[in-house]
Specification:
five-stranded mixed sheet, two-stranded antiparallel ribbon, alpha/beta
Length: 283
């Protein structure tokens, strides 16, 4: 059986940050009917082509992802009553954790908040060089950074009760999520369940890059150093961007990722070892 799994971004959210960063999804009647229909029909086709009748939609823990999964489930029931659909939330596939930003009181509904935009600019500038090479994957989102008594990013001072994740934190979390996903694939395949992942645009990019690197076997070659998986995946993403293959950040964008060419047991062993190495660095 073709082992190609459906991965998609959540539908259009309200983009209203006045109540926090975990934004709500727009109701179904405000979504693009064509987009919803395309996502649902492709999931049904992906499932039926495998001869399966059960679907498990794995989502991030964010409201917009879970609500998207619920919309998809309901539409599948209306379109093909022969398919059974379940939903499982998995916080491993959440977007980058932004910490605890201090949002102004009585904030009007809006898409953007100035200090959060500044925090993103600082995050990329601190984490990577202008050429896209690693500078500091341990930098935490929202950290004003104090160096020799000097605050390097005063525009972030006082805006966060707690800083967010670093790029290394995010990568480790996704490694754990993908490890669980691969283990679930191996475990559930005999039970005739089709796995679908609905999360964020970053989830799609990271998943695609990880599967590409694991399928090519870059990490199994002589000379691989523990901890370099993060860099190999980032380099793969940069290639995708340069070649115009990167996923756009658009509601409902989706793809299928094949793992037929991947040595799954070997990949599972590698991820366990890489996770253990990164955790040992934290200790």
């Amino acid at each position: 059986m073709e082992r190609a799994y459906f991965v998609g971004r959540h539908f259009e959210d309200k983009a209203d940050l006045s109540k926090g960063l975990d934004t709500e999804l727009k109701p179904l009647d405000e979504q693009s009917p064509e987009m919803v229909r395309k996502v649902v029909s492709n999931i049904i086709e992906n499932t039926r082509e495998k001869g399966l009748s059960k679907i498990v939609i794995v989502t991030s823990s964010r409201k917009r992802s879970r609500s998207t999964a619920e919309m998809i489930r309901d539409d599948i029931h209306d379109t093909d009553s022969g398919l059974r659909v379940g939903i499982v939330a998995d916080a491993h596939f959440d977007e980058l954790y932004h910490g605890e930003p201090v949002l102004p009181q009585n904030l009007l509904p809006q898409k953007r908040i100035q200090f959060l935009d500044a925090a993103w600019k600082v995050f990329w500038r601190e984490t990577f060089t202008e050429n896209g090479e690693y500078r500091n994957p341990d930098y935490h989102f929202g950290d004003p950074v104090v160096h020799s008594g000097t605050v390097l990013h005063p525009e972030l001072t006082g805006h966060f009760k707690q800083t967010g994740e670093s790029y290394k934190d995010l990568s480790l979390r996704y490694y754990e999520g993908i490890l669980g996903f691969l283990e679930r694939i191996e475990r559930d395949e005999s039970k005739e369940i089709n796995l679908v992942l609905i999360a964020h645009s970053a989830t799609m990019a990271i998943l695609s890059n990880m599967y590409s690197v694991l399928t090519r076997g870059d990490v199994f070659r002589e000379g691989y150093k523990p901890g370099d998986f993060m860099k190999l995946c980032w380099d793969e993403y940069r290639r995708e961007v340069a070649e115009g293959r990167a996923f756009p950040n658009a509601p409902g964008i989706h793809t299928t990722i094949s793992i037929n060419s991947m040595d799954v047991p070997k990949a599972v062993t590698f991820l366990r070892e890489e996770i253990a190495f990164l955790k040992s660095e934290r200790a």
